[in-house]
Structures are given as structure tokens and as C-alpha cells.
Amino acid sequence: MAERLYFNDKNNLELTDRIFELINNARESIKTGNFFFKDRRINDALLEAASRGVAIFVLSNLTGSENRGYVRTNTKVETDPHIPNLHELHRHGAHVHLCDDLHAKFLICDSKEGLIMSANYTPDSLYGNPENGVDVCGEELKDLELIFDTLYVHPDTILSEDGKSYRYLKKRLPVSLKAFENIGKKSRLLLTASSTGNSNLKDCSYRLIYAKLIQLTDSAKEALILVSWSYNQVKLLPEFKKALNNAIKRGVKVTLFYGTKGADKQKERTHTQLVELLGSENVKRMTAPFADNHAKCIITESEGALFTANIDGNKGLLTGFELGCILTEEQRLQSIRKINQILENGK
Fold first, then answer.
1. CA-wise closest residue to 204 among 106, 323, 69, 318
2. Contact criterion met (CB below 8 Å) for 58 and 99
3. pTM, rounded to two decimals
């Protein structure tokens, strides 16, 4: 199977269509990890799969909020369905485990097809935001399923209920330091697996996404395109900042795209972070707003990679659980075409 690259925007939902295609065609098992489970259609599709005998395994995060330090376990369904949706899946036979550091978004069906994507299971991600994703098969799929299975048997929390209230069983089963040492050696898969807290990733220190980000920036000769939803705590990414400034000095055409959603405070933070990365004299000519963007990737004149992490020194590149994949040449070219197309449609 050829690995396709998918882009969503308001005019094209090819990534969303692929997600539902995989879920609806599954016959034996679905393994999916996602930061948010807020979309009614996703839950319905997973429940329908369970009703036809498909074994459903879910990895998620308890927070239900981009602020991962705050657990909202008493939120009303009508205002934030994330946690109630997870419990609904659990009540209908899905096996739901929770990882404190999870921010990755991915899907594996029948151990035959996989997908890594920027999209959360939310209405905004599935039916509006620019998002990207890539099919995963072969060695990449083997690595992806190994990662899922390892985290699934080392959860920080397992869902439970007593008939009246939600219950959460905490587990202390640290993932081995060597658990992911072979990830990416035979495949194009990338990951972040590390934690500064007391989660079950506390013994891990895998930062393959960050290493690839620096390597591609260092190797760029003509052009570098970086697409992210947000930029945060870039002062904690000195190696990347140095690589980026060296690329600028040697004449590489650098363009950093940033998402436009969020409160004024967040937009102000984005500007401040871009100044920190590029210097105030470069920001205006090297950055561009990307309306409502949530896709993430880096592309040079010869290489590219897609990932689930934001450009964030606090969560995603140095700590947390994120996934990514090095692009094939056709996927790299498709990414450039799609970005240009979306930007043109947004004018």
C-alpha cells in the first residue's frame, strides 16, 4: 500500500474521510490514541464498530484541556464531552487507558493500516481547521503498533465506574528506558517519549522529533517551511534556534507559518516567541499567519517530516508523548502543493 498524505481544510475533508474509512472498514481491532474525544460522530463510529465485534482499544489523556495540568473530571456533557465520551466508550466495552503525557493522534486498524495525524477528535479539527496526516504501513506500522501496545500496558490511569460516579485507577508501571530504542532504525517513524513529572514515561528520554527538526534545519540549502499551530517556550530549544539562525545566515529562504486561533494573549505570545526565534528584524518577512491552522510539518527543498507536536519547549519536543513520520518525496511535494492551495483559497 502506498502511503498517502492527507490535508483538511474548510473546502476538503480528505483526512476526516480517511479516519472514518479506517474505522468503518475495521473488522478485528481498532487501536487509537488522541488527545481529545469530543466529536459525536467519532464516538458513534467507534461504538458501531464495537457492536459488530471489533475490539476497541483507546489511549487518551484525562485533562480534556490543552492545559494538561488540570483534570476536569466533573465537566458537564454539553460543555465539554471529552471525559463523558471516554466513559461512554468504556461502558460499551472499549478498553480505555490514559497516559498523562499523551498529545499524539493516531489510528491503527486490524494491524494492517495506520494513520498519524495532527487532528484531534473534535469538531474543529475534523470539520474546519487545516490539519494533516499520513498513512502508515510496513515497518512504520510495526513501530507504531509497538509504541501503542507498550503504552497501553503501562497506563498512568485506567477508567472505571461505580454506577454513580466516574472512577480512576492510578497505575505505577514505568516504561523501560530501552522500550523504544529501536524505533526509527528500520522505519521513518519519529517520536517524543519523555516526562519531567512522575508519569510512566519518567524513565524515558526519546526526542526523535526534535532531533529531526534540527537535522532538517541544518541541512536546508535553499528553502525551509515550518508549519505549527503554536510556538511556546522556544528559549528552551537553543539547538533549534541556533540551527534556524545559521540557516538564515547562509541564505536559506525561511518561512514560519503560525495558527491564528486563540485569545489575544495567545496571539501576543506567538509574536513574542517568533521574535525570540528569528529576531525582530526577520519576523515580518519570515512569518505568515495560516488561518485556523492546526497542521504541523517541516519541509526543505529535499526533505520533510510531519509530526503531532507544536514548536514548544515545554511540551511536545523535549517532553510528552508525540509522534511523527519522515515524508517520502511525493508526500513532501504534496505538502507544498496543499499548503500553497490552502493559503491561496484563504486570500
1. 318
2. no
3. 0.93
What CATH number is given for 5-204 in this structure?
3.30.870.10
Cα separation, 305 vs 232, in Å, equals: 20
pLDDT at 76 over 50: no
CATH fold, domain 208-345, is Endonuclease; Chain A (3.30.870)
Give the pLDDT confidence score for residue 165 in this predicted structure: 78
Per CATH, 5-204 and 208-345 having the same topology is answered yes
Work out the mean pLDDT of the chain and round it to a whole number: 91
Sort strands 106-109 and 29-33 into parallel, antiparallel or unpaired: antiparallel
Is the backbone of residue 61 left (phi > 0), alpha (psi -120 to 50) or beta? Answer: beta
Among residues 112, 117, 122, which one has the least CA distance to residue 38?
122
Each residue's pLDDT tens digit, 165-176: 788 888 999 999
Domain boundaries, the chain: 5-204, 208-345
Q: Residue 65 has what pLDDT? A: 45
Q: Alpha-carbon distance 50 to 262, whole Å?
A: 36
Contact 96, 83 (CB under 8 A): no
Give the separation between CA 263 and CA 282, rounded to whole angstroms.
Answer: 24
- The 10s digit of each residue's pLDDT in 208-251 is 999 999 999 999 999 999 999 999 999 999 999 999 999 999 99
Query: Any residues with CB less than 8 A from the CB of 291 and at least 6 apart, and which?
Result: 130, 260, 346
- pLDDT at position 27 is 98
Supply φ then ψ for residue 330, to 5 degrees: -65, -40
The contacts of residue 303 (CB under 8 Å, 6+ apart) are 216, 219, 326, 327, 332
More confident residue, 323 or 347: 323
Do residues 69 and 100 touch, judged by C-beta distance below 8 A? no
Contact between 101 and 201 under an 8 Å Cβ cutoff? The reply is yes
